[in-house]
Amino acid sequence: MEGSVFTPCLEGLKHVKSEHGEMLSKPFLEVCKTILPVLDKFGPAMTLVKADIGGNITRLEKNYLSDPDKYKYLYTFVQGEIESKTAKGSSSCTNGLLWLTRAMDFLVELFRNLVAHQDWSMSQACGDSYQKTLKKWHGWLASSSFTMALKLAPDRKKFIDVISGSGDIYTDMAKFCSEFGPLLQYNHKFLASVRMDDMKAS
């Protein structure tokens, strides 16, 4: 493998914002898609996360493809749904963007932990990331399912070996976190500005 599993993500991150600083739909979704092969390496521990991310990407992409010019910018989905008063629906694009961003928050925090705490086990890194990001938005059912799944986290060394390829994995991981993290915060800032950043799951 040329570079690490993060190489496609890092390349894609260069194109997520327009020259005027606006978030672009297709490049953002493409970057999220490039994370999915990384999650495959986690095995069953990330099955729930991967299904959630994949479902939200599909939902947003389907709308984007229905009118690529209209939905060129990521926040157009949300603005249209707010106007039609459908933004809070469980199958809305607003809900999809919010949960996609939250899942990415969890992964950025997880990779940050793997870089910062190289003595931590994978389950320790996953658990800490979950507490800091998704847990407060999950109800009892979602939280129980998630916690159970994370107990299946793979051996850390094996995981790092598998994703390293020919790249410097910790450098790539750190770069991914430092570049993608602010874009996710940008999403949260926008969603908070339209009072759509606090929806919870059961």
Provide structural commentary.
This protein is mostly helical and 202 residues long. It contains 9 helices and no strands. The protein has helices at residues 7-13, 25-40, 47-66, 76-83, 93-116, 122-132, 140-150, 156-164, 169-193. The longest helix is centred in the last third of the chain and has 25 residues, at 169-193. It is globular and about 50 Å long. It starts with 6 loop residues before the first helix and ends in a 9-residue tail after the last helix. The mean pLDDT is 91.
Summarize the structure.
The chain is mainly alpha-helical and 202 residues long. The chain has helices at 7-13, 25-40, 47-66, 76-83, 93-116, 122-132, 140-150, 156-164, 169-193.
Instruction: State mean pLDDT (0 to 100 scale).
Output: 91
The total count of helices amounts to 9
Hey, roughly how much beta strand do the residues contain? under 5%
* Portion in helices: 55-70%
Q: Tell me the radius of gyration.
A: 17 Å
* Coarse shape: globular
Search tags:
single chain, 202 residues, mainly alpha
How are the SSEs placed, and which strands pair?
Blueprint: H1 7-13, H2 25-40, H3 47-66, H4 76-83, H5 93-116, H6 122-132, H7 140-150, H8 156-164, H9 169-193
